[in-house]
């Protein structure tokens, strides 16, 4: 079902501008010091919180500081290092395979194109977009569950999957806003428009948001 009411382009851009002002310091919340650590941290963040990832990465990065350090690593040791986060067995397998491919195919360096990044085990479009925008300064909108949920709740898009949400946000926003919009919508989703019990009372865009105004299609809440 489509939303009963649609926002104008001006209303959509106003909502984004308000959120930009409300979260001026929005940015990555994963801890990393280089491109490889960023790639590992984003890979680990699927279906778990950045806070949980940040708890395991200091020891992980100390033990495995570069792709080469994973080549002879025992998969059980990698699992042990990250076992407190979700899907740790799959993620351990992907870390080792990803590092091996970096060494074999990319001279041990993190590639700087979406096509090459998505060749790496465990790296989907969202992860590739985060790495492109954060590590290499390439304009990209990485759509995770927060971005997808919030973009639909506000009324910026009317989509049923993350791929379409990314496409519609790219059409709506100037390219120079893409990366910042990604971080701002994540902050908004984590702090205000949470999956359960969104705080419409303190929402800075409650006068625009379809959800807060009670105009959102019930199937999208």
Summarize the SSE layout with pairings:
Blueprint lengths: L8 H14 L12 H10 L5 H14 L11 H8 L5 H19 L7 H4 L7 H12 L8 H10 L7 H11 L5 H14 L30
Helix pairs in contact: 2-7, 4-5, 8-9, 8-10
CATH superfamily of the largest domain: Hypothetical protein, domain 2
By CATH reckoning, the class of the largest domain would read: Mainly Alpha
Query: Please, what is the average pLDDT?
Result: 95
Number of domains: 2
Shape: elongated
What are the secondary-structure elements, in order, as H or E?
HHHHHHHHHH
Largest sheet entry: none
Instruction: Estimate percent helicity.
Output: 40-55%
Low-confidence stretches: none
Task: Explain this structure.
- This protein has 2 domains: 9-26 and 141-220, Endonuclease Iii, domain 2, CATH 1.10.1670; 35-136, Hypothetical protein, domain 2 (Endonuclease III, domain 1, Orthogonal Bundle).
- Helix 8 (145-154) crosses helix 9 (162-172) and helix 8 packs across helix 10 (178-191).
- It contains 10 helices and no strands.
- The model has no long low-confidence stretch (mean pLDDT 95).
- With 221 residues, it is mostly helical.
- It is elongated, with a radius of gyration of 19 Å.
- The chain has helices at 9-22, 35-44, 50-63, 75-82, 88-106, 114-117, 125-136, 145-154, 162-172, 178-191.
């Amino acid at each position: 079902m489509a939303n009963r009411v649609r926002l104008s382009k001006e209303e959509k851009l106003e909502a984004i501008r308000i959120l930009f002002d409300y979260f001026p310091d929005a940015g990555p919340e994963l801890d990393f010091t280089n491109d490889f650590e960023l790639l590992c941290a984003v890979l680990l963040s699927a279906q778990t919180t950045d806070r949980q990832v940040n708890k395991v990465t200091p020891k992980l990065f100390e033990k495995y500081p570069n792709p080469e350090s994973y080549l002879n690593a025992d998969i059980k040791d990698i699992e042990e290092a990250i076992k407190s986060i979700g899907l740790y067995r799959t993620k351990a397998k992907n870390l080792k395979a990803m590092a091996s491919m970096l060494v074999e195919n990319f001279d041990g360096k993190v590639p700087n194109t979406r096509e090459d990044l998505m060749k790496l085990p465990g790296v989907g479009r969202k992860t590739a977009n985060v790495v492109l925008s954060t590590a290499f300064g390439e304009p990209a909108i990485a759509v995770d569950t927060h971005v997808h949920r919030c973009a639909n709740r506000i009324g910026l898009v009317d989509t049923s999957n993350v791929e379409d949400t990314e496409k519609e946000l790219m059409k709506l926003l100037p390219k120079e806003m893409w990366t910042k919009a990604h971080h701002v919508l994540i902050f908004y989703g984590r702090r205000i428009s949470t999956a359960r019990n969104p705080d419409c009372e303190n929402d800075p865009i409650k006068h625009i948001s379809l959800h807060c105004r009670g105009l959102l299609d019930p199937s999208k809440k």
